[in-house]
Amino acid sequence: MHVYFTENLEKDLVIEIMKKRILLITLLISSISFSQNLLSGQKRWSSVDKLTVDDYKIKISDSSNDAIYTQLVISHEAKGFDFFKRNLNQRVSSIFLRNASWIDTTKIKDIHKHIDFQQIQFDLSEIYTRKFRKRLLKNKNKIANGFNVLNQISNEIMAEFSNERLLLAKETRRGLNDKKIAEWKEKIALELNNLNEFRYENKKKIKLTK
């Protein structure tokens, strides 16, 4: 009786190990991803490479549209073996789409001020990108069981970012209230610093605090 139990236990363990290996291989092959290699017209957030007029590839002269529009996305990817990585910073990026953003220089008197307000939104996007990286790292073990956790985090982050972007526009009157702009800049700089470990360039191991 004892031998029978041991043999069956060993068989069960072998079957379970094989199932996990098959699952990992399947996830690796069929990972749902958005490539982090920049495509033409894309610009990843940088602390030094700020937005300029030249980044806006669509130049318009149309009274029916806003004078300036900035298209931002938080792109992400994941692979089945990502739970082995020390951090997942390079799996998520804050991207500015040059070819989907426009500016009408005929409407804008102070171009620098308007571009500066768009940069603040880009900086805000980077905050939520770093929050995305942090949450993804906290939940990296769940990636082995599928990518539902990745999609869930993505949906949550995009909703939070959209709400904060709307609040920024409301409080600053779309960049016209200089006092509020200064307050937001200070707030954003502080939060970026607090999330410094989760910047794209950092490849070192990140130890999460509970």
Enumerate how many helices there are, as a single number. Answer: 4
Which sequence of SSEs, written as H and E, runs from N to C? Answer: HEEEEEEHHH
Q: Quick one: biggest sheet? A: 3 strands, antiparallel
- The rough form would be described as globular
User: Order of strands across the biggest sheet?
Assistant: 1-5-4
Distance between the termini: 46 Å
Summarize model confidence as the mean pLDDT.
83
Tally of separate domains: 2
Provide the structure class: mainly alpha
Helix content: 40-55%
Q: Please mark out the parts with pLDDT under 50 across 5 or more consecutive residues, or reply none.
A: 1-35
Q: DSSP strand (E) fraction?
A: 5-15%
Radius of gyration: 22 Å
Number of strands: 6
Structure description:
By secondary structure, the protein is mainly alpha-helical. The protein folds into 2 domains: 30 residues; 166 residues, no CATH class. Helices cover 46% and strands 10% of the residues. The protein contains 4 helices and 6 strands. A 3-stranded antiparallel sheet has the order 1-5-4. A 3-stranded mixed sheet has the order 2-6-3, covered by helices on one side. Helix 2 packs antiparallel against helix 3 and helix 2 runs parallel beside helix 4. The radius of gyration is 22 Å and the shape is globular. The protein starts with a helix and ends in a 16-residue tail after the last helix. 26% of the residues are buried. The N terminus is likely disordered.
Key structural traits:
210 residues; three-stranded mixed β-sheet; 4 helices
Question: What topology does this entry show?
Answer:
Blueprint: H1 2-29, E1 42-44, E2 58-59, E3 68-69, E4 72-76, E5 92-97, E6 102-103, H2 111-138, H3 148-171, H4 178-194
Parallel strand pairs: 2-6
Antiparallel strand pairs: 1-5, 3-6, 4-5
